[in-house]
Amino acid sequence: MFNYHNLNDVEFEELCKDVMERKLSASLRLFSRGRDGGIDLTDNTYTHNIIVQVKHYIRSKYSNLRTSLRNEVEKVRMWHPNQYFVCCGMELTDGNIREIYEMFLDFMPTDKNVVTLNEIDEFLQNPENTDIVRKHHKLWLYSSNILSEVYNQNIFIDCETLFCDIDEDSRFFVPTKIYEQCVELLDNNGLLMITGGPGVGKTITSKMLVLYYATQGYRVRYTTNGDINDIKKSLSSEKETKEIVLLDDCLGQHYFNMKQTQENELLSLIKYVKLSNNKKLILNSRITIFNEAKERSIDFNIFFQQKKIRIYTINMDDITPLEKAKIFYNHLKFKNIPSDYYNSIKENKHYLKIVQHKNYTPRIIEHVTYEHNYLKETPTLYFNYIFDTLANPNDIWKNEFEQRLLDIDRAFLSTLYSLTDTNVEHDIFKKCFYKRLSRMKNIDFTIDNWSLVLSRLNQSIINIIDLKGKKHIGVINPSVNDYLKIVFMNNSLELDEVRNSICYFAQFERCYSKEELPHIYHQYIVSEKINEIEFFSVDQKNYFITAQICKNGIINVNYSEIITDYLNNSYCYNYSTVNWLTHFEIINSLLSDELYSFYSINQFINKQDNIKNLMCNLNLDELIFTINLLNDFFKIKKMNFYWFKLICKELMEDTIIDYIENIDTSDYCDNYDIGELIRENTKRYWFRGDEEDDIDKDSAVSDLEKKISADIEKEIQEKLSSLEENIINILTLPESYSLNTIGIENAIDSYLKDTDYDDYDRYSSSEVFITEIEAIFER
């Protein structure tokens, strides 16, 4: 049996409406109790030929249901329907059914007009009615047990932060027409970009889409940290493995520190998924940031202009007032808003003004229904509070921050913003907060300020989540960061306080502009205060300090050990920044006379093991560049190391093979006209008067593989051409090699199934009968 206990009364009524419409082959409408004396569903507002009374009563006793139905008898006689049905949210005995039937004998031809929960479930279990189940997401969501699997790393990979509040999210979610269209688009195309303004529901829509596909056997991969290249590498190369990737706020929260190649990495992932039948990709981004990315990257803009990925913009104007009402009601219902507060919304049908307000967004509704927010208002003023918040949405966090938080709470949030846009490890944040606290006056240090602030702000402004066994802390939603950014950058005194208490490296990039950073970095290196700063890793620290030393020509014997450690362990450490010297610039600088002599680089460079270790684990481009740097240096210094050439030969040959084996052939497919290739490998013949095509797919794959192999061989030769001839001559290149043809096969398959499409027919809001909204709230 499906799990019906998570349906509220409105959701159960809608389920019964869909069930009875199909059973009776009639269209039914939902009405409020106050307007028509108790009718839930009817086929005609004037004749009332059919009336369906829905009784939720899922967690109630039969005696309560019986009392309620007895009160309906006279009302039913007044309306005098041809047929009267009772749909019950409970299991009934034969005696119960007979008793209800006898109450309404004049309007029920048989006792089949009493529809029990068992009969509803039996109807929904019929495969012919799976579309109804799918429409009511809580049925399949809870019945699939997928929520109990969200921490199963075989299904949900790195999704802890995504699903930390999924039980709560699933209660509030309403499957709008927008959601249904997104499912259809993903089913047909596999790629979807969801854009929209702040707080319109991009993330929760994406979450529910991911959960739906998880129930269909897809493994889920998720990231918000910009590691797009790692996501692509982690996808299974098995064609039959079904996987869906969600890049939440893929251009937004991390946009400030994106690599210049980020859009290209994103395009590479998109193209890979597009060519894979069993891979799907959901991206979401604020529309302003999405437009900014298109301006920044020509290739990115062209890709979307050519409609190679479907873009869906969530516009609150496309969400009907009825859907907005359901979202609002779910928050009121599942957050157990007290009846006196609820009555303030029902009074004079105030709920209509809320759901029809031009500034309505789910995020504002979420905010005004939190207990810690509404309890600050008296019940009679609750509607006024909601309406004022809708009228001034930008003041949501302004009032909270300025009027309702303590000084120490504000310092806590400033410190959090100085560290991250998403979440940060508990221990790192705690250390930074205490450093900030040490500079504040009138603070009682005899109490546990950290725990007290956490307790006050948790679930109101911040969230505490478990990520791979470690506590992480972040703001409750992105709108908090939007406000903190304004406060942070406009309040110079507070910004100075945070700057003076920096103890974690990530704070620099968030507390200073790009123009200010070089001077600040120089100061910290010269003063050696950099040693007081904690880094993400030793490799990051080694890279940063060595880069600054080389950039500014700093001579300081205390940094000698760091430079040696950099050469031994941190060379080509990947850190996405455009403000530091590249690793190749660093090596070039260290080989210059002054730094070479002062930091005794000769002691490192003259040892065979050191050079081999330096060049190990580099990719092909990095290795070629490093070989050229060292080779030029040895020539200038007239140092003839035979062992250097032997190391180059060994590493180059291994790296070339590794390069070939890891090539994604799908990246090359766009260079060719797949349609022409298919036509060249298609035989046309007549069969019983009809013209038919016989496509030799294997030959098409083979032909494309040969073309791409030639491209790769040419590409490698071009890369090697920058090496000295005496090194090229000692290399033994593979005579032949086999490519991974999965990307090629996917490209062929994608072409064969692909069809051109125009802009998706956007759901446009038609007039919604006010009575349907009244039916939700007037109960």
TrEMBL record:
One of the GO biological process terms:
DNA restriction-modification system
Alphabetized InterPro entries for the sequence: nSTAND3, P-loop_NTPase, Restrct_endonuc_IV_Mrr, tRNA_endonuc-like_dom_sf
Q: Does the keyword Nuclease apply?
A: yes
Listed A to Z, the keywords are: Endonuclease, Hydrolase, Nuclease
Name the CDD domains for this protein: SIMIBI
The chain positions of domain Restriction endonuclease type IV Mrr read 6-59
Q: Which domain of life is it from?
A: Bacteria
Show the Pfam families listed in the entry: Mrr_cat, nSTAND3
Every copy of the Novel STAND NTPase domain together lies at 173-334
Gene Ontology MF annotations:
DNA binding; endonuclease activity
Nuclease among the record's keywords? yes
Q: What is this protein called?
A: Restriction endonuclease
Lineage start: Bacteria, Bacillati, Bacillota, Bacilli, Bacillales
